[in-house]
Amino acid sequence: MSTTPDNAAIAPHRGNDWLEEWDPESPDWDRKLAWKTLWVTTFSLTLAFIAWFLVSALAPVLNDIGFDLSKSQLYWLTAMPGLAGGLLRLVWTFLPPVIGTRKLVTLTTLLLLVPLVGWALAVQNPETPYAVLLLLGVFAGIGGGAFSGFMPSTSYFFPRSKQGVALGVQAGVGNFGVSIVQLATPWIIGFMLLGGAFATAVGAPQRVVDDSTGAVSEAYYQNAGYAWVPMVLIGAIASWMLLRSVPVRVTRVRDQFDILKNKHTWLMTLLYVITFGSFSGFAAIFGLLIKNQFGSDVFGADGINPLKYAFLGALVGSAARVIAGPIADKFGGARVTLISSAGIAASAIFAALQLNPSSADQFPPFLWGMLALFFFAGVGNASTFKQMPVIFERRQAGGVIGFTSAIAAFGPFYFGIGLATFSPVPLFFAWSALAIVGVAVTWWYYARAGAEKPS
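Given the sequence above, the corresponding structure tokens read:
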């Protein structure tokens, strides 16, 4: 019986972290351990996405609580977690076979305390230098880097026939972290987290000035960071207590770079940039885009409050990813990716046509166009992850999942810098064109009869 993925040689025993043997393709594979690993890492991954997209929830309101930042500075601020997340994913991609799932998930979860506590402190002082805010944006990228370590780790535990479901659940539920932080932030800032002496330690409320009416209220924006600290500690403890690590063939980082010699690594990277790049990029700037195109700065008292709608995009995309995983298992990832890419292209064009409104009444068509875009992006996120374990052998598939995730994680950076430099309409049309290229690539290499790698 094979004891490690793809008949790999057994890695030397390195302590209690590591399983002696593991063959997920065996009929008697340990389902209980696999699903336990999935749920523990998914909990931590959700917290990672919360930390990664915390900036997107705070950026639209920073000026309301006393900061004085330009539109360009705010877009740059939302871009930094994407830049750092993409770079850190390139590192996290190669860590699972080296340090193992247990240490990787535990240590990464603890590192989330840095951006969460850092932003909680920063929002209490409007005099915080912009350079410090950018640095905190970089630290938020730790949450983005986690994905490329957690997902390959999970893929080691499941047979190929179950990976569409397993990875779809993990990534989809993890992606809910984006909508959770964007939805929860307007709620948790409204009350004091702790009373008595603890309240003084947490900090005083901030004065919030309404742009359109000049009305002043109070809110605890530090809650946006502090509220997640207990869950992070729970996640780290659970990871250390419950997780194990799968021995795989490769223990040296340089041995994993062979994936870069395979053209399908680059083709799947393109497709995942189109799908997850859409999800992460548009989720990061959705609130600012609503504020700048439809908000009170443009239409006064009739303007749209971005905090009421920004979470919907990530919510729809995350749900679509969970739902699409089993569908991709049944009908094939390539067919679903084909539909996803076409849907992203059409939705981006429709949304672009709504970006020069003459009144706030034109917001609903834009919102529906964006929700359609998020939906098709979520579908493609699941289907591409179904394709990769089919196209590549198991050990390479883990590396490819991590690498493509790293490049796609630059989505917030692409979109943040794009909107800091250009108007939104050209950006939307350019993304639509890229999605059309994705349709062609998917059909030719993976979906048509006689395709090189049907998946």
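The domain at 12-447 is CATH 1.20.1250.20 (Growth Hormone; Chain: A;). Try to locate this feature in the token string yourself.
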